Amino acid sequence: MSPERSAPGKMVNAFNPAATEGLDAATQAAVARRARLLGPAYRLFYRHPVAVCRGEGTRLFDAEGREYLDAYNNVASVGHANPRVVEAVARQMGTLCTHTRYIQDGILDYAEQMLPTFGGRIAANGHMMFTCTGSEANDLAMRIARHRTGRNGIIVTAEAYHGNSHLTAGFSPSLGDASPLGTWVRRVPAPDSYRMDPDTLGQKMAEAVAEQAWELKRHGDGLAAFIADSLFSSDGIFATPGVLKPVAEAVHAAGGLFVADEVQSGFARSGDRFWGFQRHGIDPDIVTMGKPMGNGYPVAGIAVAPEVVESFGRDTRYFNTFGGNGVAMAAAQAVVDFMRDEDVQGNVARVGARIREGLTALAARHEAIGDIRGAGLYIGVEMVSDRAARTPDAALAARIVNDLRERRVLISATGPEANVLKIRPPLVFSDTDADWLLSEFSAVLAAL
């Protein structure tokens, strides 16, 4: 999961380990055991943490058999314990699981099927390279970008999250103020469609990128790459189409590469496109993928235009012991096969529209809902204390998240002010699931 923090750098929606007095004895014991065995860096969600032991489709279950509606987890993109993925992984694990230095059909079949989906130069004659995680994918993308350009600078959005390796943490400001950014990193504001004119978002963002690229050049780094999550998840979820097109032009004018981070927004999440960057009409130099790619099995990777990786491949080599192994590719193949056969993208578009319609109806009755935005099954609901002034209300957002948890509906919050409710369920979310979510959300608002 991507981290979500408030402006001072504290985790959003995190359990407070100093406040255990309201928990039952079993939960207190489990919390204490986690702290003893895993240490202080791990975080739990919710004021009252959830202990899960089983998942099925869009539902999670605790040890007592209580059922929770999962409206948050994008890793299980085609549903928890999806039978087709489980069967494919088990079959391949029982056959062969080894690295990519042998000729194997699975990895080639997958790459051959996926490359055309990206369009542009990548579809024409691009390549895929495989990793285990999205962090590794973004790390590899930046290694390639730096090698290609001979520069070090990276530009990101103000609250971006791109990974937790040493390199990617260095350009992930959402990890908090105590997590240092690289001296070669520059930030630009996210395209805030709630507080800015949507018609000028792309141009203003492009101007900011050009300015920061010049600053990098002045300081001797130069621009290697601009990288963005196409739905701006950690920045508060912004989904205005076309925003990144002038940005890509500015990046290329400065001699940098455009990297589309599709870990959050790819694999049909937006409903209207299979890849989030396609909503912006751009031809990226590198596309990175992760979390939802294997429905819980660790598989990730990049797709790259041929000229971008040519010198990197000539001058160095890439090898990953587990990236692209047979089991990983079986999981990834099962996911895209399921998406195709079950028209998952169509479901995302339809159910996402149903949820946004229901939320819009609630906003007409509740002044605390300032904005509803997103695409497909990635929806942000911005909570405010003053709708006219658009004043962020992080306390209210946290209360709603925790009140929904008590009603066994799981969402989270995001954004620089921690006031944007994040609704990001598995892509197989149904009409029944949507109605359950909206009903409980309505009840929580009414109780306020």
UniProtKB/TrEMBL annotation:
Among Pfam families, the record links this protein to: Aminotran_3 (PF00202)
In its UniProt entry, what is this protein called?
Answer: 4-aminobutyrate aminotransferase
Note the PROSITE patterns from the entry: AA_TRANSFER_CLASS_3
Record's keyword annotation contains DNA repair = no
Q: Which UniProt keywords apply?
A: Aminotransferase, Pyridoxal phosphate, Transferase
InterPro entries named among the record's database cross-references: Aminotrans_3 (IPR005814), Aminotrans_3_PPA_site (IPR049704), PyrdxlP-dep_Trfase (IPR015424), PyrdxlP-dep_Trfase_major (IPR015421), PyrdxlP-dep_Trfase_small (IPR015422)
UniProt superkingdom: Bacteria
- The answer, when asked if Aminoacyl-tRNA synthetase is one of the entry's keywords, is no
Which positions carry the signal peptide feature in this UniProt record?
Answer: none
Per the entry, which co-factors are needed?
pyridoxal 5'-phosphate
Q: Which GO terms describe its molecular function?
A: pyridoxal phosphate binding; transaminase activity
Q: Which family does it belong to?
A: Belongs to the class-III pyridoxal-phosphate-dependent aminotransferase family.
